[in-house]
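Hi F.,

I've been meaning to write this up properly since the lab meeting, where we talked about keeping a consistent format for the predictions we share between groups. The idea is simple: the sequence comes first, exactly as it goes in, then the structure tokens exactly as they come out, then a line or two of notes. No screenshots and no reformatting. I'm using this chain as the first example so we have something concrete to point to.
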Amino acid sequence: MTYVYAFIVGGLICVIGQLIMDYTKLTPAHVLVIFVTSGVILTAVGLYEPLVKIGGAGATIPIPGFGYALAKGAIKAVDENGIIGAFTGGVEATAGGIAVAIVFGYIMAILFNPKVK
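Output, unedited:
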């Protein structure tokens, strides 16, 4: 059942994003910012954690999950380091994912010769 819940939660997040792009004039970049920000806000008010417990990777892998990771890292760092943790915790919590995205993006650029549109 874990896989089913992850599929449902992740699918609903993707459907919401697609509906926003289809029925508004917002660009994908706007939707990305909205989703990351909503992940942070929902985590701050305690609404995203129950979604993560139900959906697992279905809630943490889509882009609101990045906002969730930023907020959780900042909250943890504030508890450990005080107010300076608000600025450093999110970056520390997401550094591995960011590094992997940069490395794989670089490898793909070398392999596939990107073109400017």
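Notes:
Residues 2-92 form one domain.
The chain has one domain: 2-92.

If this format works for you, I'll send the rest the same way.

G.
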